[in-house]
Automatic annotation (TrEMBL):
The chain crosses the membrane at residues 21-47, 59-82, 103-127, 133-154, 166-184, 199-219, 231-256, 276-299, 351-373, 393-426. Keywords: Membrane, Transmembrane, Transmembrane helix. It is found in: Membrane. Residues 478-565 form the SLC12A transporter C-terminal domain. The keyword Acyltransferase does not apply. One of its GO terms (molecular function) is chloride:monoatomic cation symporter activity. The lineage of its organism: Bacteria, Bacillati, Cyanobacteriota, Cyanophyceae, Leptolyngbyales. It comes from Leptolyngbya iicbica LK. Residues 30-468 form the Amino acid permease/ SLC12A domain. This is Na-K-Cl cotransporter. One of its GO terms (cellular component) is membrane. InterPro entries: AA-permease/SLC12A_dom (IPR004841), SLC12_C (IPR018491), SLC12A_fam (IPR004842). It is a multi-pass membrane protein.
Length: 746
């Protein structure tokens, strides 16, 4: 059952007009949480280690490479944010409205858990640093208390939590000032045992890169911003720029004040250099707390958007509720607290920490892909005020993938498997959003490119049946659709066509009926197009479709018909077959009842046999063998035996014919067996009835209209001949293609 969601579910109680908008501004809502997450623990505890191992020049290069990837992602975010109204959900909202709800959910669900578990990571880091100063304290207890306090702060309101971050920012700024105005330090005794340069460039970059992540902290506050379209690009890019300047300044400061061995040996080397050493501790504590606050603010808002879009199970939709004038997700915050407390109780997140980093980088990558595709397609609906060349977004996506593998290849594969699993789960649920996304535009571009690259009809190497099936009401002639599905088995194309009486439907009702039939086919597992036309009579409508249906070189090459049951309509039916031949369309006429064909479909595989009455590889013979082979390789007719049957007048002719047929079947490699039948004075009709009475499907060649005096009389006689037979498929090869080339390779 499909589930529906709409943007209206994400509307907050705030006014959307600029004059009445309330909420956070650019500095408090985006810049502050972003810069505080960027200036984190790695800056304080790992910058010396990075500089000690690779030197000043390579450190500055690592900072530049890492920040460049984040900057490219920031550009992509800015493009998306200035093209659409960004509501609650941040990155998830952007991705789902661009690449579809399945992709958005596949990234959004892991992103929520990554942010929820990040709360535990940061509070555990804070508790560990406190316990080092006060060893009598219990690490887990301190982490639990801090986690609850941070959550209480977030529950009061996002605005109060942001104001608390101003004090944390002041502590970090103080520590940086004390570092810049600090002094040189003497080598430590522990430095003697350190091997400088033992870690390579890319390994060091992998350790440092998480220091430049964190720009999602501001994006996740999108639902609490006064003007997200302005605040997100300005605040995000400003945070990236300020972070880059600080990260370029710190290595220069450390380089001239400490030796490489001491920087590697002492993670708190900055404390020894700073003018006031304890300011570095304040900075470390501020960095962990600010990151925890950013995560506890962002995670519930992503969860709120997921719940309102129907991505998470129905039993958890209550997590989409918001409270207060700012629509704050308090229930979602308490749910996030539960996850964080459970993680803190475990106490050791080292095993999953790399996977969490992968989820953040996956989000960056998908945002870059989203902006890149939108920019490449140049859809009229994509009109960002902040324009970014699509090649830069693509470069950002490649950079994200590269860094993911450099950091941890195993964690990258695990994260990718989780995201793919969630995507497939959401796709099976068939969640429908009322918004459009970029996927149809991407497919249209690919189809256009493909159509213009097809030069004329397909060659023999790439031939497949492209069927136009005249089924009438599909429910009454479902055996035709079963046959078409078996011949194409979700690799070829086929269209279910029907002719409506003229004037019986207006255009709107006709389109609605087409959509209903399409849905009916999909629910029965049939992948097909649907085309309805109106005409004074069915045969005229069918002729119109044969002449006009298709686009460019992609035209149906085979017409599949049911046998006519009305003798009075045999003339019109014969004219239709003649038109198919003149239009170079192959013809396949299935004579069967729905009950008879369905019974064959359900038989055990060991009873199945397809009889092909042979008249040579040229013309109809080659096409009949191809169709028999396609049936045999389908799921419904798997492992059926293809029996190639040939009638000869006497035993002398039989010996030569047997040798030729055996050589042919061996060279064709389609799993066919040959059977040569000596007529011994019997008529072909008698031999046909006796030999194929136990077959499940009989394939017979159909003469072309120009090869007989009266095709109507010929077809009437043929109908009498095949009436006693089981399911029969009459085949006429009309296409300008040597079907023997499809079967045989030089």
């Amino acid at each position: 059952m499909s589930q529906h969601s709409s943007d209206s579910g994400l509307m907050t109680t705030k006014s959307q007009t600029a004059d009445e908008a309330t909420g956070l501004g650019t500095f408090g809502g985006v810049f502050t949480p972003s810069i505080l997450t960027i200036l984190g623990v790695i800056m304080y505890l790992r910058f010396g280690w990075v500089l000690g191992h690779v030197g000043l020049a390579n450190t500055l290069l690592i900072v530049t490479i890492s920040t460049s990837i984040t900057f490219l992602t920031g550009l992509s975010i800015s493009a998306i944010a200035t093209d659409q109204v960004v509501r609650a959900g941040g990155a998830y909202y952007m991705i789902s409205r661009s690449l579809g709800i399945e992709t958005g959910g596949a990234v959004g669900i892991p992103l929520f858990f990554a942010q929820a578990l990040s709360v535990a990571l940061y509070t555990l880091g804070f508790a560990e640093s406190v316990v080092r100063i006060f060893p009598n304290l219990n690490l887990t207890l301190v982490a639990l208390i801090v986690t609850v306090l941070v959550t209480v702060l977030a529950l009061q309101s996002a605005e109060i939590a942001i104001k608390a971050q101003y004090f944390i920012m002041a502590a970090i700024a103080l520590s940086l000032v004390c570092l810049v105005f600090g002094h040189s330090t003497e080598p430590t005794a522990a430095a003697d045992s350190v091997e400088v340069g033992s870690v390579g460039f890319w390994e060091v970059l992998a350790v440092f890169f998480p220091a430049v992540t964190g720009i999602m902290s501001g994006v996740n506050m999108s639902g609490d911003l006064k003007n997200p379209s302005r605040a997100i690009p300005v605040g995000t890019l400003a945070a990236i720029g300020v972070g880059y300047l600080i990260y370029m300044l710190i290595p220069l400061t450390l380089y001239f004040r400490a030796d490489p061995a001491s920087m590697i040996a002492d993670p708190l080397i900055m404390r020894r250099i700073a003018l006031w050493g304890d300011s570095i501790l304040l900075g470390v504590w501020g960095a962990t707390l600010s990151s925890a606050i950013g995560s506890i603010l962002g995670a519930p808002r992503v969860l709120q958007a997921l719940a309102r879009d129907g991505v998470i199970p129905k039993s958890m939709r209550w997590l989409g509720k918001g409270e207060g004038p700012n629509d704050e997700p308090r229930l979602g915050t308490l749910f996030t607290l539960g996850i964080a407390l459970a993680a803190v109780t475990i106490g050791d997140l080292n095993l999953i920490a790399p996977v969490l980093t992968m989820f953040f980088l996956t989000t960056y990558m998908v945002l870059n892909v989203s902006a890149g595709i939108e920019g490449f397609l140049r859809s009229p609906s994509f009109r960002p005020t902040f324009k970014v060349p699509w090649i830069l977004s693509l470069l950002g996506a490649v950079g994200c993938i590269s860094i993911m593998f450099l950091i941890n290849a195993v964690a990258t594969v695990v994260a990718a498997a989780i995201v793919l699993g969630i995507y497939l789960w959401l796709e099976r649920r068939e969640i429908e959003g009322t918004w459009g996304d970029v996927r149809q535009g991407a497919w249209m571009t690919l189809i256009r490119t493909g159509l213009f690259r097809i030069k004329g009809p397909l060659d023999s190497k790439n031939w497949r049946p492209h069927l136009l099936v005249f089924s009438g009401a599909p429910t009454k002639r479902w055996h035709l659709l079963d046959m078409a599905d078996a011949l194409t088995h979700k690799r070829g194309l086929f269209t279910v066509a029907s002719v409506l009486p003229e004037g019986s439907r207006d255009v709107g009702r006709q389109e609605k009926l087409e959509a209903t039939l399409q849905d009916y086919l999909e629910k029965r597992g049939i992948q097909a197009f649907v085309r309805l036309v109106t005409a004074p009579d069915p045969f005229q409508g069918m002729k119109q479709l044969i002449e006009a249906y298709g686009i460019g070189p992609l035209l149906p090459n085979t017409i599949l018909l049911g046998d006519t049951e009305n003798p009075e309509g045999r003339d019109r039916f014969s004219d239709l077959v003649a038109q198919c031949h003149q239009a170079r369309r192959n013809v396949a006429i299935l004579r069967s009842s729905p009950e008879q064909f369905t019974l064959v479909q359900r038989r055990p595989a060991r009873f199945r046999r397809i009889d092909v009455w042979w008249g040579g590889l040229q013309s109809n013979g080659g096409l009949m063998l191809i169709l028999a082979y396609l049936l045999r390789t389908s799921w419904a007719w798997r492992n059926a035996e293809i029996c190639l049957k040939l009638v000869v007048p006497d035993a002398a002719a039989a010996e030569s014919a047997e040798k030729n047929l055996e050589g042919l079947t061996e060279s064709l490699r389609i799993g066919a067996v040959s059977q040569v039948i000596v007529s011994e004075g019997r008529s072909f009709d008698e031999i046909l009835l006796i030999s194929s009475q136990t077959a499940d499907l009989v394939l017979l060649g159909l003469a072309t209209p120009d090869a007989v005096d009266s095709f109507t009389d010929y077809y009437a006689q043929l109908q009498q001949r095949i009436t006693p037979l089981p399911n029969t498929l009459l085949v006429m090869a009309s296409e300008e293609l040597d079907f023997s080339d499809v079967l045989q390779k030089e």
